[in-house]
Amino acid sequence: MFSDGPGVLLAAYPWGAYAYQFNALSPEERIDKVMEYGSQIHPQYYDEFKTGASVAWHRVPWTLGCYGLWQDREADYQDATAMDGRTLMAGEHISYLPAWMEGAVLSALDTVERLHTTITEI
C-alpha cells in the first residue's frame, strides 16, 4: 500500500447460491472468471495481473467455511465477550461483524477497552 510495487486485491467474495456455483469451478477457472469480470470495470486488469489464488472455504476440511454466524447473537454475545479469569476473546468471530476485518478490529478495540476498565478498577 502506498508504494509503486504490486499490491493484493480481493477480487471476489461471492455469497449464497452463486458462491456454490462459483466454487464448483476449479481454482484456475475461478481466477479466469474474476479476470474476465474485473477487466470489464478495469481494462488494465490483464496487463497488471501477476498471479492469483482462489480458496473455496467450505471445501477446506478443517474450517468447512470462511466464517461463523451467531445462532443467537443477542443472547450469547455478552457471554462470549465476558472476561473469563484472565482470558478475553477477540476476533471477527467474536464481533457484530463476523467474516470482516472491520469486525476483528472492532472486537480488538472492545477487548482492549474492557481489559483497561478491569485493570484500572482494581
Mean pLDDT: 88
Figure out the total of helices. Answer: 5
Q: Portion of residues in helices?
A: 40-55%
Structural class estimated from helices and strands: mainly alpha
Number of strands: 0
Question: What can you tell me about this protein's structure?
Answer:
The protein contains five helices and no strands. It is mainly α and 122 residues long. It has two domains: 16-59, no CATH class; 73-121, Orthogonal Bundle (Arc Repressor Mutant, subunit A). The chain is elongated, with a radius of gyration of 19 Å.
Short précis:
The chain is an all-alpha fold.
Describe the protein's topology.
Blueprint: H1 16-23, H2 27-41, H3 45-48, H4 73-81, H5 101-121
Task: From the structure above, extract its key features.
single chain, 122 residues, mainly alpha, Arc Repressor Mutant, subunit A, 5 helices, 0% strand
